[in-house]
Design a protein that fits this description.
single chain; 382 residues; 4 domains; globular
């Protein structure tokens, strides 16, 4: 599960490592268990047991900490507002404050993490009670990571808090249950969004081990590999990330075809790894092919479509000896993307400044090239 290291010596644990009989805390061997008992576990064992045993106790504690961090970070934005779900400023039970980590603007989108979590739990429980199919279950599951008002994904520490709330809600499911594995995946993504990449990697490796152990589908294994590759990149393991990105893209292309959302996302992630290796020719070739695919499959205003165009423009102006026509195309593309991005996601989204930075760099590259060629800005080429 998520507690992947020995409580006594912090060594990595196998999934079937020995546990405390009473509270289910895991150890690498009996020696560590006895040593931990003498060093203080004896005093808290019953408390952990009453809290639902080790995994549940840990999840509850981490969720409370993550919610507090998110509330504090959102304090300026949420001052004087109320939750759109319960209409209160403070949560009636937990006394937590408000957060907003989506693309809502104005007075919309303020909520308690506990209210968002309860809403998502109710929707999924109703779907499970009515024995709805996987498609319907997935539609309900979306509420764990996507705002019900603006329909954009949560990000940063708010997403991290929701990840812990989700894991807290489903950690008690039978090991290998689809909902439990989905909650583990959501937690890993939330930790990544909050830039807790070492923690995210630990969760993703545990998820990969569990999915393989319980015979998960090739598609779900590819999804976990994609998340692992993201963590490898953030932790500086670039070559490992590139190999895995290529594998994930090829796998999605084989299973789903080129106009599938998952394939387009995998292609975009593969491009990020190619960027790290400055392989701009491959980047331009792949993205030139994927831009029309993304527009047809996802629509012009989808985040992944906009990112695909954004990355293509960066490749155009980053290439050594970029032609004036390429630089003009980069500027034109980024002007369009920046406008659409701001309209769809708002100025508070963490990626909005990066789009503006890319546009600034493209314009500067074009100005330098024009100065070198002696062309007057705005004039037609000779």
């Amino acid at each position: 599960m998520i507690l992947t290291t020995c409580a006594a010596c912090a060594a990595p644990l196998a999934h079937d490592a020995p546990r405390c009989v009473w509270c289910k805390t895991r150890y690498c061997n009996a020696t560590c268990q006895h040593d931990h008992w003498r060093r203080g576990h004896k005093q808290i064992c019953k408390k952990i047991h009453r809290g639902g045993n080790a995994e549940q106790y840990h999840a509850d504690k981490k969720c409370k900490e993550a919610v507090a961090v998110a509330v504090e970070a959102c304090a300026d934005d949420t001052k004087g507002q109320t939750c759109y779900i319960c209409t209160e400023a403070l949560h009636w039970k937990t006394k937590e404050g408000l957060v907003r980590g989506c693309s809502c603007r104005g007075t919309a989108g303020f909520a308690h993490v506990s209210c968002l979590a309860e809403q998502a739990k109710i929707l999924l429980a109703e779907a499970e009670e009515n024995n709805l199919d996987n498609k319907a279950l997935n539609e309900k599951w979306v509420r764990w990571h996507t705002c019900g008002l603006c329909e954009q994904r949560y990000h940063g520490i708010v997403f991290c808090a929701l990840g812990w709330a989700c894991w807290k809600s489903y950690v008690g499911r039978l090991e290998g249950h689809q909902t439990q594995m989905s909650a583990m995946s959501l937690l890993g993504n939330g930790l990544s969004s909050a830039k807790k990449h070492t923690d995210a990697l630990s969760v993703q490796e545990a998820e990969m081990s569990m999915r393989r152990r319980f015979g998960a589908s090739e598609q779900s294994i590819l999804a976990v590999k994609g998340n692992l590759a993201s963590s490898y990149e953030e932790l500086g393991r670039k070559e490992q990330a590139l190999r895995m990105r290529q594998e994930v893209y090829s796998g999605n292309l084989k299973i789903n075809g080129e106009e599938n959302r998952g394939t387009i996302i995998a292609a975009q992630a593969y491009v990020h790894s190619l960027f790290d290796r400055r392989r701009f020719a491959e980047v331009k070739s792949l993205l030139h092919k994927n831009i029309p695919l993304a527009r047809r499959a996802l629509g012009d205003n989808d985040g992944y479509t906009l990112r695909t165009r954004w990355l293509y423009a960066i490749a155009l102006y980053s290439s050594d000896g970029a032609a004036l026509d390429d630089l003009r195309e980069a500027v034109t593309t980024l002007e369009s993307v920046a406008s659409s991005w701001k309209r769809v996601f708002g100025i508070s989204h963490p990626e909005t400044p990066y789009v503006q930075d890319a546009l600034k760099e493209a314009r500067e590259a074009l100005a330098r090239a024009r100065a070198t060629s002696g062309q007057v800005p705005g004039s037609a080429p000779a």
